[in-house]
Specification:
Elements (H helix, E strand, L loop, with lengths): L1 E7 L5 E6 L1 H10 L16 E4 L11 H20 L3 H8 L4
Length: about 100
């Protein structure tokens, strides 16, 4: 979910709203943000959108994450079966 930040022009209250990009575009096209009421001053003034720093954080869904974990586990298992001493030490530790 993307976070969109708006500021009330009357009382300067900053509000963060979280929507998917498609939902945000639908709300923008329908004029939703022009009809917002401020929770602080109850004014129907126009809100100003504030653009903050950009982020390159990407989240993965559960299925993608599990698929990547299983693939990594398969690779480690293959290396252990092939006798890779370095991988075996990383998995099982050093012999005392």
């Amino acid at each position: 979910m993307a976070v969109y930040t708006y500021k009330c022009r009357a009382c300067k209250l900053v509000t963060n709203l979280s929507f998917s990009i498609s939902k945000f575009l639908k709300l923008s096209d329908s004029g939703h943000f022009e009809d917002m009421y401020c929770t602080n001053c109850s004014d129907n003034t126009k809100f100003t959108r504030i653009f903050g720093v950009t982020s390159s954080k990407i989240t993965k869904d559960k299925e993608t994450l599990m698929m990547e974990i299983k693939e990594e586990a398969r690779k480690i298992s293959d290396e252990v079966r092939a006798g890779d001493q370095n991988t075996i030490r990383q998995v099982y530790g050093e012999e005392a």
